[in-house]
Amino acid sequence: MNAGTNRSNIRTGLNVGIVLKKDQKSGKITKGIVKRILTKSSSHPHGIKVQLEDGSVGRVKEIY
């Protein structure tokens, strides 16, 4: 299980890699800094949904 599936591992200001909705088929990673955590539950099998500082929204796949 990757660290991006648990909400407790993610905080605002963290440098992460997310997969945007439009990139789910290709799995392309978008890097950025977490601005807001959008998932309310403590975990999610596909990754916690976050908003980056540039406004992109996606699920966390990597934490740097």
From TrEMBL:
PANTHER family: YWBE PROTEIN. It holds the Pfam family DUF2196. It comes from the Archaea. This is YwbE family protein.
